[in-house]
Recover the amino acids of this structure.
């Protein structure tokens, strides 16, 4: 009887062995699948992260270029607007110029007043002439607006107009005028820089004194300041120094 029981026990153990083997195989299969899933997830996640970093880097690297392109487009737009204003100003505001050298021009016979930089004074045919390049002397809101248009101030934010004036020359052009023998000349800083010299408002000087400013280098600052000229029948009858703060 004992022999029969032993036989049954051995038979049961042999029957259980295949079941355990199947469980181990299933365990390893599931474990392998899990590991494969984890590895796949890590690979996909790594690729996604790498792609994200690459795209982010490219955006960061190209951002200055995009901003530069935007600024260039904005500058082109501003240049077009400025050119448009210059063309309008040329046809609507600027008087016709007398050619350099004093030949007859197309200026109207009535009087006018202009401001500009005097380039030189000279004699031709026994008469005195001066060459002048007109400018705009702007103050207040007009000065601020012009500075923004010319790129001297940021497009937005504060714009500081030093001493509340801005000199603008959108249409550089040398004009020549005969100087009247009876021309009147008034200066503001003729004596400045000399011993005892100071600002003297509307100090009248002779034409020879005025001409010496441009013939010599004794008063160099007076060569660069603007002057207001009064013109009558294409002839300069009055010159006034514009005081520059």
């Amino acid at each position: 009887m004992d022999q029969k029981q032993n036989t049954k026990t051995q038979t049961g153990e042999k029957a259980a062995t295949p079941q355990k083997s199947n469980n181990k195989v299933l365990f390893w299969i599931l474990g392998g699948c899990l590991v494969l899933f984890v590895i796949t997830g890590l690979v996909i996640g790594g690729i996604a992260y790498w792609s994200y970093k690459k795209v982010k880097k490219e955006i960061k690297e190209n951002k200055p270029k995009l901003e530069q392109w935007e600024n260039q487009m904005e500058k082109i737009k501003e240049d077009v607007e400025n050119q448009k204003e210059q063309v309008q100003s040329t046809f609507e505001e600027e008087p016709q110029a007398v050619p350099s050298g004093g030949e007859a021009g197309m200026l109207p016979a009535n009087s006018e007043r202009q401001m500009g930089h005097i380039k030189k004074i000279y004699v031709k045919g026994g008469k005195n002439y001066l060459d002048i390049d007109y400018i705009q002397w702007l103050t207040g809101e007009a000065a601020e607006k012009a500075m923004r248009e010319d790129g001297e101030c940021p497009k937005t934010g504060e714009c500081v107009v030093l001493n509340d004036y801005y000199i603008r020359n959108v249409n550089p052009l040398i004009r020549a005028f005969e100087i009247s023998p009876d021309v009147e000349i008034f200066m503001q800083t003729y004596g400045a820089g000399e011993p005892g010299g100071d600002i003297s408002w509307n100090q009248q000087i002779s034409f020879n004194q005025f001409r010496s400013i441009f013939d010599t280098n004794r008063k160099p600052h007076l060569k660069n300041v603007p002057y207001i000229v009064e013109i009558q029948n294409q002839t300069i009858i009055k010159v006034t120094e514009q005081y520059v703060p």
Observations:
- The domain at 112-135+173-241 is CATH 2.40.50 (OB fold (Dihydrolipoamide Acetyltransferase, E2P)).
